Amino acid sequence: MPPRAWLRLLARARLPAPSPARPRGPGLRARLLTTAALGAALGAGWLGLRAEKERRRQRERAEALRRAAVGRGDFSLRDQHGRPRRKADFRGQWVLLYFGFTHCPDICPDELQKLAQVVRRLEAEPGLPAVQPIFVTLDPERDDVPAMARYVRDFHPRLLGLTGSAEQVAEVSRSYRVYYSAGPPDVDGDYIVDHSIAIYLLDPDGLFTDYYGRGKSAEQIAASVRRHMATFRSVLS
Predict the structure, then answer these.
(1) Over the stretch 14-52, which tens digit does the pLDDT of each residue have?
(2) Mean of the per-residue pLDDT values for the chain?
(3) Is 146 helix (H, G, I), strand (E, B) or coil?
(4) Of 136, 147, 149, 148, which is closest to residue 176 (Cα–Cα)?
């Protein structure tokens, strides 16, 4: 085909029209940032709902325990310095309370050591109110004021050891529904006091708020006390 014919053919040929440019969306980095922000917002909302659910559960548990009427009424005992002590003396303070006896071979020392660890953990956190640790004897016959003074100093400098007459100890133990019973003496006159094992938490109004058995660690108890403190503040506000 002559060259001129090729030129005429090319001139008549219609080239396909260029496709319109597609609008460019946000880049990959922008999409990732948007997804991350959305995930963070959803995560924060979920954590907030979870925290509110936990606070509601704490309030419901505390209310149920208060209805059980544990620790109602006052008591009259003496501390390791011989000073009279009543429940009203501790109003305005958080209290961790344990019942036991100084001749206890293992459980009471372990539980008092745990109680002291809880207090130290909370003391190390600025902004938290102080917690008063208290040990009440269930063996007033042997645990007089000097015996309590010797015993409590091995655990925490602020631990108060409370004792009194057999009637006074029976009254406070009934108030907190603490079971105890002295076993038969051995040939040396020594005996074991069988008793229930729990650490009690009292709020600044003096109300029984929670309790912790042997299975609870110091870390778990400290975390529970923190939550109760937060719930108590939220109710006041």
Answers:
(1) 445 555 555 555 677 777 777 776 777 677 676 666 656
(2) 85
(3) helix
(4) 136
- Give 90's DSSP letter: G
Go through the domains of the chain in sequence order and give each one's CATH number.
76-236 (3.40.30.10)
3-state secondary structure of 177: coil
173, 99 contact by CB (below 8 A): yes
| 154 Cα distance to chain centroid | 24
Give all strands (DSSP E) within the chain, no chain letters.
76-78, 84-86, 94-100, 131-137, 160-162, 180-182, 193-195, 199-202, 208-212
Q: What is the pLDDT confidence band of residue 13, given thresholds at 50, 70 and 90?
A: very low
Q: How far apart are CA 17 and CA 206, in angstroms?
A: 87
Where b means 16+ CB within 10 Å and e means fewer, 35-47 reads eeeeeeeeeeeee
Mean pLDDT of 92-111: 97
Pairing mode of beta strands 193-195, 84-86: unpaired
